[in-house]
């Protein structure tokens, strides 16, 4: 059981690192924040941008990482 949870923990941690590194920075300068932010905010596909998708994946990976961390701690403490 501990080995399976550890494997999932490693998968979630590596995916979390990769997803965060794939996201663009929030401070792209003044021109990027005005033009890029307006296009994303007022655009029709606001929820379908790559940054929005990566943000959702980041939340899923972070929740999975948190759950596997708690489960691993409980498994180790029960021994």
TrEMBL record:
Belongs to the SecG family. Keywords: Cell membrane, Membrane, Protein transport, Translocation, Transmembrane, Transmembrane helix, Transport. The chain crosses the membrane at residues 6-22, 54-76. It is a multi-pass membrane protein. This is Protein-export membrane protein SecG. InterPro entries: SecG (IPR004692). Involved in protein export. Participates in an early event of protein translocation. Its main location: membrane. One of its GO terms (cellular component) is plasma membrane. It is found in: Cell membrane. One of its GO terms (molecular function) is protein-transporting ATPase activity. PANTHER family: PROTEIN-EXPORT MEMBRANE PROTEIN SECG (PTHR34182). GO terms for biological process: intracellular protein transmembrane transport; protein secretion; protein transport by the Sec complex.
